[in-house]
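Example record used in the benchmark description.
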Amino acid sequence: MVKHTATHILNFALRWTLGDAVEQRGSHVTSDRLRFDFSVKGALSVQQLQEIERTIQDIVQKDEHVHVQELPLTLARGIQGLRTMDEVYPDPVRVVSVGVPVSDLVNSTGLLPTSVELCCGTHLLRTGEIKDFVIVAEKQLVKGISRIVAVTGEEAREAREAGLALAQDVESLSVRLASVIPSLSTAHRLSKEVGQLTDAVDSTAIPQWQRRELQAKLKALQRTTNTAVRKLETKEATRKVQTLLEKHVSETLVVDTVDADSISVVMKTVNQYSERSPGAFVMLLSHQPCGKVLCACQVPKGCTTLSAGDWALAVCTQIGGNAGGSPTVAKGTGSTVDLKETLELAQRFAQSRTRH
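Model output (structure tokens):
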């Protein structure tokens, strides 16, 4: 009964907020939630979702009486603002009105702001029994048709509390990101937190208007962390390149290891080395604590004797991995306990292709 009466009030609130063009296209109620399909031009805005919820909350908090009366079908159809479905109704028919007696609706010559429908189902006696109402999902099914999923009572209270907790988590993360990010590891950790919070906001039952707001904030935070990661990776790569250049002065074939936590840093290091030493053939390997090997390489542009893709593939397949890329730049992964043989293989492969 709770969800059924709440569905009637939702139908009214949608029309009250969005206009008379809104038409019901289907509904379904279960013990824990209600679903309502309706015609609408596009996805609802945050402001529209909030207004719909406020309209329903006002009706619930007023604890209005739910009036039910049988009327001849012809007389019932003459009620202003009556909501009907495309189906055959009995004659006489039950009219369900919220807050306004059915007799007043029959005698009124104008439209009264209330929910009034033809319905044979069971309903609450008063709207206060709904206790609370929260829209937890809204999406377009097809062009022109949207679906709302909502909860009431205790489930609605829990949704509000979950939304508040997630909003606090997002605000806390936003404050931390506003300060200077001291290291690449910190930037990666914060980026991971943004992703985890995004998953939580996407999957948790919270008010849909709040979900939209938090999703927008998290997208902005993700852009911030991505920018920080890129800048810090570039700085780290620059430091590593300087060390490698000092180690491999004037060498045209450079095969070496580099300490890096991600393939992105290895790639940036290779790219920067090639920019600083345009004629060099460069392959860098990074051995991770778990035994995984990160590999990146680059050859001079226009080189026809050695393909970067072939070079990376030859090395990575030797250590049980794979690689891919272009003739100029490539990357891959593999796994090994000892890098010595892998480095020797990389050296020999490049020498066999570049030896004139």
